[in-house]
Amino acid sequence: MRHSYWSALAALIVAPLVSTSVLAGGTALSCYEQATVPPVYGTVNERVLVEPASSYVVQKPAVYGYQARRVLVQPERVSYRTSPAVYQTRQSRVLVQPASIGWEYRVINGRNILCKVQNPAVYRTVSQKVLVQPASRVAVRQPAIYSSVKEKVLVQPATSYRVQKPAVYQTVSRRVLVQPAQTVWKPVRVRGCRY
């Protein structure tokens, strides 16, 4: 290639002289003609950005659950119950008149006679209402009443986190010009010219 370059350069310098010499009838020492050298291409691999790096936020909703809770429906109460007095009827023998000595007239055999008389005691049976148990006030305790209810509770609060997405690259092949087309002088062998 270097030889062609120097040959072409020499041809450019010598060409005016040669044509003058030929026209002048001199002897041609070497001859050249113009030629086009096609361009030279090569393949280059390049890493090209297809999608830039990005990030996005992921929202995670709150998680709820249900749990049973004991609630007071009615508090403990104390009420009072009154028990009436209890009576009983009892019979007893009551002295109405004690034994005594007195005088009385009696008719004996047609005669009116004063006699000393002993009078026995006189008793009578009477019914009497007797208090057996007095009236009383009794406390009655009623326990508290509870119930179970289901309620919604937070198990895990809502959260968010960022997801990083890396950049996406791709290797592409590209045709590049290594050497452009050139016009050169190359030696030719023609009649009347020495090579």
Tell me the radius of gyration. Answer: 75 Å
Number of strands: 14
**Count the helices. How many?**
1
User: What structural category do the secondary elements indicate?
Assistant: mainly beta
- Cα(first) to Cα(last) distance is 18 Å
Spell the H/E element sequence.
HEEEEEEEEEEEEEE
The largest β sheet comes out as: 2 strands, antiparallel
* Strand adjacency order, main sheet: 1-14
Anisotropy-based shape: rod-shaped
Helicity, in percent?
A: 10-25%
Q: What do the pLDDT scores average to?
A: 83
% residues in beta strands: over 45%
Low-confidence stretches: 1-23
Overview of the structural elements:
There is one protein chain. With 195 residues, the chain is mostly beta strands. The chain is built from one helix and 14 strands; from the N terminus they run αββββββββββββββ. Strands 1-14 form a two-stranded antiparallel sheet. It has a two-stranded antiparallel ribbon with strand order 2-13. Strand 7 and strand 8 form a beta hairpin. The two termini are 18 Å apart.
